[in-house]
């Protein structure tokens, strides 16, 4: 997710005091690869969105819709790990404003929710909170990957830019609420089953309590989420106000 203003200070440290250097964007081959990646990811999340709608229309209920999109959700959310290295760490900082550490936290937390909580604790898969974060992720990712695609092509429609820097105001709290409620719902099942926990004594002289770990994960949202949210609010003011000024000058 991202610290407000931190990206600018780090970038300034790499500049010459007399002749600022611009970050290089990806070359032609890398750009082509990144465009293909983002198009595929956009299409993947559209498949998830369509799957949710079709399942809802077929069932006439929003309960337990997770099963209708479980496989593509796991595939495309896990595919974001590739983005964490190739897109965020190497290329996208030169194209769109982003904080590597906090965006990496966002990616990792979603992969963690997908596999280590929702997949592993099957009892929570029927919880409405799962649908809450899945819907928030789906809308967010369709917009985000579309934003990256058009940014790479240097042809970004204002509507996508506006959606990227506006809809998060509702979608981020919605997604985080769903994630936290799902982890909370998983806690009693984790405690009862001892899932992923390691007890002493053992030959490694090491113990691990997954139940406590999940509580710590929930607590970690307290410092991280506000940083992401206020960073995005800062970027919204910066990006959209710059766009409005540009329109007035034309």
From TrEMBL:
Residues 1-24 are annotated as: Disordered. It is a multi-pass membrane protein. Its EC number is 4.2.1.134. It catalyses: (3R)-hydroxyhexadecanoyl-CoA = (2E)-hexadecenoyl-CoA + H2O; a very-long-chain (3R)-3-hydroxyacyl-CoA = a very-long-chain (2E)-enoyl-CoA + H2O. Its main location: endoplasmic reticulum. InterPro entries: Tyr_Pase-like_PTPLA. The chain crosses the membrane at residues 32-57, 95-118, 165-190, 210-230. Keywords: Endoplasmic reticulum, Fatty acid biosynthesis, Fatty acid metabolism, Lipid biosynthesis, Lipid metabolism, Lyase, Membrane, Transmembrane, Transmembrane helix. PANTHER family: VERY-LONG-CHAIN (3R)-3-HYDROXYACYL-COA DEHYDRATASE (PTHR11035), VERY-LONG-CHAIN (3R)-3-HYDROXYACYL-COA DEHYDRATASE 2 (PTHR11035:SF17). Belongs to the very long-chain fatty acids dehydratase HACD family. Catalyzes the third of the four reactions of the long-chain fatty acids elongation cycle. This endoplasmic reticulum-bound enzymatic process, allows the addition of two carbons to the chain of long- and very long-chain fatty acids/VLCFAs per cycle. This enzyme catalyzes the dehydration of the 3-hydroxyacyl-CoA intermediate into trans-2,3-enoyl-CoA, within each cycle of fatty acid elongation. Thereby, it participates to the production of VLCFAs of different chain lengths that are involved in multiple biological processes as precursors of membrane lipids and lipid mediators. This is Very-long-chain (3R)-3-hydroxyacyl-CoA dehydratase. The gene is Hacd2.
